[in-house]
Design goal:
The structure is a single chain. With about 350 residues, the protein is an alpha/beta fold. The protein folds into 2 domains: about 25-210, 2-Layer Sandwich (Nucleotidyltransferase, domain 5); about 230-350, no CATH class. Helices cover about 40% and strands about 15% of the residues. It has a 6-stranded mixed beta sheet with strand order 1-6-5-2-3-4. A hairpin with a 3-residue loop joins strand 2 (about 60-70) and strand 3 (about 75-85). The longest helix is centred in the first third of the chain and has 19 residues, at about 100-120. It is elongated, with a radius of gyration of 29 Å. The N and C termini lie far apart (about 70 Å).
Length: about 350
């Protein structure tokens, strides 16, 4: 039997840099000095970034690197623009892997650019180096230090940064998509690199593990039955119910799951709310299953949260609409408020919590 063809083995870090490695020659900056929000206009973000970049050495080797990954998880592409002190430009384009995160693609771009610079200059070069990237996550990974890297990629980047011990080096974050020429060109290179053959690009264990987790999670969500819960969540996981009591949290999860332990229809179905005419049944049209607040239909979770006319005012305040889409019920606080409102309406008529 012929052996099956396999792709490149996942990368594993076997040898780390010693914790006493001197990293003082490398400055890593995760901001551009002044606070600038993502919502600010492009020209504002660009002006702030350019003002800060002007404080860095002009006569230096400048690298603009960027990474791209389809959906942030696949078909990684890495690109970099290198400008030498002479004004000469070089570019790199590198596939980052069929399974790849955006952060990994960014780190692959840095490594490829630093390798290119190493080939152009000797190990004794003291020419300053400035590397600009729009990935704070990638820089934060490197900022933990040379001896704290947990991946082969991170360790290799630090080895390249320290290859010329007398070289002053800056790793600088810049805002993305605001018109910085170097960043825009690196972005184009990364997108083009994502279409390169990925077969030879190694996959790191972290990306591979996350890919398996995503695939298993999607397969599980695809098997969810057609239900009220699926109408609310679609293909998302419910988030923890924060800032509510345990009783409220239980009500939220039960209501969204479609089985509320405090509904009259549920209690009648299990024999906890009998009437002289019907001791127990599963008929939602049975008078014993009707909503105790409006008496129009059975108080199923869908009725309580979306249809009960007595809670229309509360839905209007919470959602801006008395007939909100079911997906608005992802808000645990709103569901808890509707549950409390329903129970308060029941209390004056003598129907408190069973």
């Amino acid at each position: 039997m012929s052996a099956q063809r396999r792709g490149p083995s996942p990368e594993r870090l076997h040898i780390t840099l010693p914790p006493w490695t001197d990293c003082s020659g490398v400055a890593i900056r995760l901001d551009v000095g002044a606070a600038v929000s993502r919502e600010a206009r492009d020209e504002v973000r660009r002006a702030v970034a350019e003002e800060h970049l002007a404080t860095l050495p002009d006569q230096a080797t400048w690298i603009w690197s960027d990474g791209s990954a389809e959906g942030g998880v696949a078909s990684g592409g890495s690109g970099a623009l290198i400008t030498l002190p002479s004004g000469e430009e070089r570019t790199t384009r590198t596939p980052a892997g069929a399974v790849c995160s955006s952060t990994r693609a960014e780190l692959v771009a840095m490594r490829a650019a630093l390798e290119e610079v190493q080939q152009l200059e000797d190990a004794t070069s003291a020419t300053p180096l400035v590397l600009c990237t729009d990935s704070q996550a990638a820089l934060a990974t490197l900022a933990t230090g040379a001896g704290e890297q947990r991946t082969t990629l991170g360790a290799e980047i630090w080895r390249l940064l320290l290859a010329a011990p007398d070289r002053p080096t800056w790793l600088q974050w810049v805002p993305a998509h605001c018109g910085l020429p170097g960043n825009e060109r690196a972005d184009e290179l990364a997108k083009k690199a994502s279409s390169l053959p990925q077969a030879a690009a190694p996959v790191d264990v972290r990306s591979l593990t996350k890919a398996v987790d995503r695939a298993a999670s999607k397969a599980w969500r695809d098997r969810w039955p057609d239900s009220f819960f699926r109408r609310i969540m679609r293909d998302r996981f419910p988030t923890p119910v924060l800032n509510e009591t345990r009783e409220d949290a239980v009500n939220v999860h039960q209501l969204r799951a479609g089985h509320w332990g405090l509904s009259t229809s549920y209690l009648h179905r299990i024999g906890r709310h009998p009437t002289p005419t019907c001791q127990q049944c599963e008929d939602l049209k049975c008078p014993a299953a009707l909503c105790l607040v409006c008496r129009e239909e059975a108080d199923t979770p869908e009725h309580v949260l979306l249809h009960c006319p007595c809670l229309a005012g509360m839905r209007l305040r919470l959602f801006g609409n008395i007939h909100p889409d079911a997906t608005r019920l992802r808000d645990g606080g709103a569901v808890a408020a509707l549950a409390r409102g329903c129970l308060r309406h029941r209390e004056p008529a003598g129907y408190g919590r069973p």
